[in-house]
Specification:
The complex is a heterotrimer.
Chain A: E1 4-10, E2 15-21, H1 27-35, E3 41-49, E4 56-64, H2 70-93, H3 98-113, H4 119-122, H5 142-145
Antiparallel strand pairs in A: 1-2, 2-4, 3-4
Chain B: H1 6-9, E1 23-28, E2 31-36, E3 41-44, H2 46-54, H3 62-69, H4 79-89, E4 99-103, E5 111-112, H5 131-141, E6 148-154, H6 162-179, E7 182-188, H7 196-204, E8 207-212, H8 217-223, E9 224-225, H9 231-248, E10 259-261, E11 263-264, H10 272-281, E12 286-287, E13 290-291, H11 296-300, H12 302-305, H13 309-328, E14 334-335, H14 336-346, E15 366-369, E16 374-376, H15 379-386, E17 393-396, H16 401-405, H17 408-416, H18 423-426, H19 438-445, H20 456-474, H21 477-486
Parallel strand pairs in B: 4-6, 4-15, 6-7, 7-8, 8-10, 11-13, 12-14
Antiparallel strand pairs in B: 1-2, 2-3, 5-9, 15-16, 16-17
Helix pairs in contact in B: 5-6, 10-13, 13-20
Chain C: E1 5-10, H1 16-26, E2 31-37, E3 40-46, H2 56-74
Antiparallel strand pairs in C: 1-3, 2-3
Classes of the chains: A alpha+beta, B alpha/beta, C alpha+beta.
Chain lengths: 154, 502, 77
């Protein structure tokens, strides 16, 4: 069931106003639905408190880029409702995609730079290391490595 | 046939968010097309969509099996297998640019009214790429982390700088004898400067040859102005000759033919069938219906040659409908946009077409090398530069490869070219198959981060995707077989330079 | 004499920086100023270039909305 209402359509100003209880859909879904109409309408979002502190509602003002009539305003309203549901449905099923974007971009850049290994790792000098060699001091007991001898603290 | 309204079909309160893998939907004919973030797609009825959203599909139902096989049911997804699949389809993320466009010269002997490349007259040898710049560009190209390199010769008319073209081929082959990358060369030429000797060289060196052909002779000659001879006759003469040579070399004629590309001008809009017939008569197996782009001369002549996206789409639909009819009559010909999109939609294959991938191909998929050593994000970025705007000049050959790849502008282009960063794309059913071009956004909307809802780029691709989705939805077995044939990927291995070969 | 145009954008729905971004897009064509008024940002548009044949208020409001959405979705929660 549609949750929003076509409040009014004013042919003179070529403007339809929709309203929606602010508690039903997250603002992000309203944004997504509004965005879907900006190729056909000039969109203005507003919010107003209901009387006696009973929550608030979103107002979505759609001024047609071409001449609208009542049927066209109704169609825009219907499309807004479809988009609202679609956005909210996806939002509900999906968690945020931001991490994925960052991962994709990071991999894109890292893959392209060719700098996947630290330079030290590429040096040939250590090729003939015996497994008993310990150039990084991994086998050194930490007490010895961090002893307070006043000369060495790391 | 009216679609039920989504907000009347699905109640948000009843949605079981744990059941489905994230998906998007779009009405197609009486049903809905759904796609998930892994790139699977299928058609469902409104009732089936509701059941998917509500998580009310029993395991015993055929619908459950069908949706599980397509990875729409979260509990049935084989994570390891899908991770491997994702990595395969997104392999381009793990290496650097493959396509290296060498602008060998700004000179051209044609005066195409819409020319994308902002060319100069044949006397302007000062616009030629020098041998020194060419070698440094090859050196840069070989630093790519990509296992494959395609060096594409462009112009102007690249054959006008024949000596440097040959030098690049020889120098790159020498380098590759040591490096062993999958190296190919591609020449984009009007073919009017071709001779038998030059053709011998190009065939000997396995240089792939592409040309431009704007359809019927009268239109071709009207918009691709050539004063020295009949441009159409000359270009098509060489197309036929090159195809003959491929036959003489024993190459599979289904795979090896001169690729010809039309540019759709306003006059061509009225004659889609003539265009297709011209290509078919010349033996072409593929037609790439390219819309006039907003770069170069095209930007300046848009008022006389341009048209709306809706006009282009009408043209496109008529042309592809006709191509499909020809296929039914046994003629093997395909449209390239459609083949690329169908590869992604039904063949689960990523052709790495740089304009339709995410992130887009700017810098990390391709680089454009200007004759004077400037480096651009792409061929389109170079065209913007030719119009006096250096927004897409990433650096010069004095920079290191690392500097180019990690430049702030490179990062900005990658981020701008990522679909998930676009409010509209996030929830678009075609997102797994689509991409965008920051250079196009910049020229048409003034910002590299385009606003897809207003963008003609989005409108064009969404229209074509919709057209294909509708055809797929109603396709019979023969049509499906035809579409699958269009997606068959047969690599042109002949054009690969042999490793170690000098 | 040209009349000033005003547009009120609710502060809960529009980001100030997004509005400034949108003002930047159009500042070749008009003079913009913005101030807080209660729950709204009030944007005043003056001296609109007579060459502008589009709907500058409508386009500006769409840009402000689009920039807001893009900015909000870019900002980690």
């Amino acid at each position: 069931m549609a949750q929003h209402t076509l409040e009014r359509f004013d042919a003179d100003s070529n403007t339809a106003v929709l309203s929606l209880d602010a508690g039903i859909y997250p603002l992000d879904a309203v944004y997504g639905a509004a965005y879907a109409l900006i190729d056909r309408a000039y969109v203005l979002l507003d919010k107003e408190a209901r009387a006696e502190g009973k929550g608030s509602r979103f107002l979505i003002q759609l001024r047609g880029k071409i001449k609208l009539d009542q049927a066209a305003a109704q169609a825009l309203s219907g499309e807004f409702g479809n988009e609202l549901l679609s956005q909210a449905l996806r939002r509900k099923v999906v968690k945020q995609n931001g991490g994925l974007i960052e991962e994709i971009v990071t991999q894109a850049i890292a893959g392209a730079t060719g700098a996947s290994l630290p330079q030290d790792f590429l040096d040939d000098d250590d090729d003939d290391l015996d497994f008993l060699d310990d150039p990084l001091g991994i086998a050194v007991p930490w007490e010895e490595k961090f002893k307070k001898d006043g000369k060495k603290n790391a | 046939m009216t679609q039920p309204r989504l907000d009347e079909l699905i109640s948000l309160r009843k949605v079981d968010a744990t059941f489905a893998l994230p998906f998007n939907q779009r009405p197609i004919n009486d049903d809905f097309l759904i796609s998930n973030d892994l790139g699977d797609m299928t058609f469902v009825t409104p009732t089936e969509l509701q059941k998917l959203a509500y998580g009310q599909i029993e395991k015993t139902e055929p619908l459950y099996t069908r949706l599980a096989e397509k990875n729409f049911i979260a509990g049935e997804v084989d994570v390891a297998a899908q991770a491997t699949r994702w990595r395969t389809k997104n392999a381009f993320l793990f290496y650097g640019p493959t396509l290296h466009a060498f602008v060998l010269t700004g000179r051209c002997n044609f005066g195409c009214q819409y020319c994308h490349s902002s060319i100069v007259g044949m006397h302007r040898t000062d616009t030629d790429m020098s041998i020194e710049v060419a070698e440094r560009a090859v050196d840069m190209a070989f630093q790519t982390t990509s296992p494959g390199i395609t060096i594409e010769f462009q112009g102007g008319e690249p054959m006008a700088n024949w000596e440097v073209l040959q030098h690049v081929v020889e120098y790159a082959r020498q380098k590759n004898a040591l490096v062993g990358k999958a190296l190919t060369f591609s020449l984009v030429s009007n073919l009017t400067l071709m001779t038998e000797e030059k053709l011998d060289y190009l065939l000997e060196r396995k240089v792939q040859i592409c040309t431009s052909l704007d359809g019927p002779k009268d239109l071709h000659n009207k918009y691709r102005i050539y004063r020295d001879a009949d441009g159409f006759d000359l270009t098509t003469k060489w197309m036929k000759r090159i195809n003959e040579r491929y036959v003489e070399m024993g190459l599979d004629t289904n795979l090896y033919r001169v690729e010809a590309l039309p540019t759709v001008t306003r006059a061509l809009l009225e004659r889609p069938k003539d265009l297709v017939d011209t290509f078919v008569d010349l033996g072409c197996r593929a037609i790439f219906l390219r819309k006039l782009d907003p770069f170069g001369f095209a930007a300046r002549t848009a008022k006389t040659l341009g048209y709306s996206m809706e006009q282009y789409i009408d043209f496109y639909v008529e042309a592809v409908d006709y191509i499909i009819e020809l296929n039914k009559q046994g003629v093997q010909v395909m449209e390239r946009n459609a083949a690329i999109m169908l590869s992604k939609m039904i063949a689960d294959y990523e052709p790495n077409y740089l304009d339709l991938r995410s992130p887009g191909g700017a810098v990390i998929g391709q680089i454009g090398y200007h004759p004077d050593g400037r480096i651009y994000s792409s061929d389109e970025g170079r065209m913007v530069g030719a119009m006096g705007d250096e927004a897409f000049c990433i650096g010069t050959l004095d920079n290191t490869y690392h500097e180019i790849m990690t430049a702030a502008s490179t990062r900005a282009l990658v981020i701008a070219g990522t679909n998930l960063g676009q409010p509209d794309c996030v929830s678009c059913v075609y997102r797994p198959y689509c991409g965008q071009q920051p250079e196009y956004n910049y020229k048409t909307q003034g910002t590299i981060r385009g606003r897809m809802r207003d963008s003609t780029w989005c409108r064009k691709h969404k229209y074509i995707f919709d057209y294909l989705a509708k055809r797929l939805h109603s396709a019979d077995a023969d049509e499906m077989a035809m579409f699958e044939r269009w997606t068959t990927n047969r690599p042109q291995e002949h054009f690969l330079q042999e490793s170690g070969e000098i | 004499m040209a009349t000033d145009l005003t547009i009120s954008l609710h502060r809960a729905m529009y980001m100030a920086q997004a509005i400034r971004d949108a003002m930047g897009v159009f500042d070749d064509f008009a003079t913009f100023s913005m101030e807080k008024k209660g729950d709204h940002y009030e944007v005043t548009i003056r001296d609109v270039d007579p060459e502008v044949d589009g709907d500058i208020v409508g386009e500006f409001s769409n840009f402000a909305l689009a920039h807001t959405i893009e900015r909000k979705r870019r900002t980690p929660k």
